[in-house]
User: Fold this.
Amino acid sequence: MSNPSIKLSIIGSGYVGLVTGACFAEVGHQVVCVDNDPRKLDALRAGKIPIYEPGLEDLVHRNVAAGRLRFTGDIGEAVENSQVVFIAVPTPPQPDGSVDLSFIEQVAREIAGVLKDYRVIVDKSTVPVKTGEKVADTIRRYNKHGADFDVVSNPEFLREGCAVGDLMNPDRIVIGASGERAVGLMQKIYEPFKAPVLVTDINSAELIKHAANSFLALKISYINAVAAVCEASGADVEMVADGIGMDRRIGRNFLNAGIGYGGSCFPKDIAAFIAICDDLGVPFDLLKEVQRINRDVRARFVKKVREALWVLRDKKIAVWGLTFKPDTDDVRSSVAIDVVNDLLGEGAKVRVYDPKGAEKAREFKLIEGADFASSPLDAAKDAEALIIATEWEEFRNVDLGAVKAAMHTPLVFDGRNLFDPGTMEQMGFRYTGVGRTS
Ligand code: UDX
Assistant:
């Protein structure tokens, strides 16, 4: 028997909204994605996807063609024609780390302005605990019809680069709700995904998102701190991580040492969680240490380059990788970008290559003064050192003999432990990884 199709609207056709809308359509629901940017809507209607995410373009095209996915700028029409309304608008950080909730508040008021009959309003954006209560309060205050509704928190755990896969095969689905009617509808929406569902109260669901991301960042900072101990003692962090990770209570995932975590989620979510906890009067200092370690690993890495090259001014340095991780074109809050700027700041001549991130780095002027190369080999030409800042698969398959021949001096600083130290030394490179001995 086919699954029941539910009419859904997604307000905010950004990263989370678009991927979520496309995946809901894929499993058979009727989805309308709303956005207030007419240019974005035109592009989407013309089949152009504003972000690079493997599998997304096909998914959008297929579901638009099947009549299950469409785009509109009219929030009233979208709310009128859907049983469940998802909010997926940005929640950007403010200078003090706390979350700017003005987009959420505005959408809540807009929904209130058009709400006539019962709807489930679902918050998918990452928000501080107790936001659901405020959304419900706002809708109640601004709705003239006194319409019935439920607010649900349904946090999103997708990772960039594998967002479609994460959404189609999630580890778990968290539904934070207060009424059975809303829970029933949410369960129907997620039935086709065949994933474990955890039903909680709204506050707990909101907290799960921040607590989960903070824990993952903590794991990364933990292994990066262990990497420093490995360097000081002659141990190998990859072996240590394997040994720790084989304990099923710990697991090997997110124990990859490197130059630290970046991206549009972890740095922002950890800062937000710290601010939320401060606000609640329960300071979470452990997370401040997580941030400190993350800053420290990058400084330690650049120091190694400085120690080998002595003065960085006018040194030709090749950097492979700009995105905050592979398989994305996202260069926001990327540690790779920070490393390039550290080097530029000391007067180095930096030549960068990234398979997908160069365009955005150039467009947003994130690394002014750096040269853009057309290939990994092109970047390495005449370089006095090569830095690997993002672990793209493409780099694994580069002809390293040609790279060595092209470089002025074969010094490699591998910020993502992409290569095996022994093999690199055998090939004649002077190789430095993170937390590794050769
Ligand atoms: C993350 C969460 O994984 C996801 O559940 C949440 O919804 C959004 O934030 P994302 O930011 O897309 O997803 O990327 P992720 O794969 O988690 O990597 C984040 C950063 O951590 C990257 O900079 C990556 O290089 C770094 N990282 C990750 C490490 O340095 N070591 C690791 O072992 C894992």
